[in-house]
Specification:
Elements (H helix, E strand, L loop, with lengths): L3 E10 L2 E8 L5 E8 L5 H15 L9 E7 L2 E7 L6 H6 L8 H19 L13 E3 L5 E3 L4 H5 L3 H6 L9 H4 L7 H16 L9 H10 L11 H10 L10 H5 L2 H4 L8 H14 L30 H13 L2 E5 L11 E4 L2 H13 L4 E3 L5
Helix pairs in contact: 3-7, 8-14
Amino acid sequence: MDKYERLKKIGEGSFGKAILVKSRTDSRQYVIKEIGISRMSNKERQESRKEVAVLANMSHPNIVQYKESFEESGCLYIVMAYCEGGDLFKKINNQRGTLFTEEQILDWFVQICLALKHVHDRKILHRDIKSQNIFLTKDGTIQLGDFGIARVLNSTVELARTCIGTPYYLSPEICENKPYNNKSDIWALGCVLYEMCTLKHAFEAGNMKNLVLKIIRGSYPPVSVHYSQDLRSLLAQLFKRNPRERPSVSVILDKPFLARRIHKFLSPQVTHDNRLVWQSKRPAPGPIPISPAQKITKPAAKYGVPLTVRRPSDAIRKVSDAVKKPVKLKQVRTKGNKGMYFIGYSTSMFCSYIITQYVRMLGGALVYHSDIC
């Protein structure tokens, strides 16, 4: 850290801390992500280095530029470019109820898609797409950030203690404890598009159980007819409950009302190269082959949802048993969450499982007042 002068802390979340710094060599401002790794095993540290190496190879006008990384005093430091325009979440909140124009939404959305395509083309999942991880530069260019960092943190002890807030962007397959692939990123992309259109989250509820149920059902308030049918239809496709029915990011960008905007954000050469890739990946006429979801090691650990697939017969049996005996859950006072309590009733074994994992993520504990468990 001797090469940088600390200016101020600008954020704190699941990744650790975000610190605005000034380089002592070129006088430019950067953001350093400070991640505690002292509790990692040697294997986990090695994995984190591999993830940072992947991050270093990302080069795209709509992706936050990586500068360098280093380890010091039990922390991993990742130096990234600083986006002066803030994040999309703050931009949305600053609207104070005034909707964005469709022109603005589509321009932003195309840039997000171009960044995500660059990531997916390299067989990498972002896994933490949300408006807080989408940034704007000084000239208003959209840049996607923090991909790879979530994966670095998936196996750390620190994550469960620092990850706070409701996971509005969870896909149905993660909620249902199933393996997932890049289509979960597409679901989260839909959540961001919905936020830009309504200035609200697509799925909101007073507690975790109801939020999970809403996500699984795919029930969300409709977008205003103020927006075009093309936009509203696209949103419905992104929110398909079956991940196989959601379009890939390449298919999304191939839609005429979006494709004609691409040239505004990419150089002619990059645009031409992308076109060649899209054309080469277009399936031949006939049934579209669908590849099975790839199982990823601990992809949802940050939400406390491990990827273990239960046999349908077992799941049905357990849900049936749970319906017969309601479960009362109560979170006890813990050192990490003083004064926080969670009380609720569940008639579904599945919902109680999700709630259990979520409360554990917050560093709490559950006391079961039933002989079911």
